[in-house]
Amino acid sequence: MSRIISTAICALFVCSICSSVASAHDLAAGKALFDASCSACHKTGLLGAPKLGDKAAWAPRIAQGLDVLISHADNGFSGKVGAMPAKGGNSKLTTAEIGNAVAYIAEQGK
Ligand code: HEC
User: What structural domains and CATH numbers belong to the chain?
Assistant: First the structure.
């Protein structure tokens, strides 16, 4: 009986970890996607894009929340400095894939 309970507690614990924001997205896949589809602008700052790892540029954006960032990256977004094309211009990408890339960007900008 106690074994069942401890297994249940253990499962609960693992689930609470997997639902936390950082691990809800696949950061390794996000990095690969970033390198392939986002880095052209976000590595160099092309067209005014906030650069990867530029904490000052990302802090106010991250403050909007990850969901807003993902929606802006997924649907496109025109801000003060320029235009972020929907899905970085690669219409084959899914929202989940965009989410991975945005989570990776946000991790680097913290
Ligand atoms: C053609 C250049 C370009 C490409 C490619 C590009 N971006 Fe952007 N992105 C921009 C620009 C420019 C901005 C800033 C818009 C502004 O704030 O005026 C931006 C802003 C963003 C933001 C911040 C949105 C906000 O609410 O502040 C996110 C997140 C983002 N891009 C994610 C991505 C992801 C993920 C990819 C790859 C799938 C990508 N971008 C590819 C140009 C690009």
Answer: 25-108 (1.10.760.10)
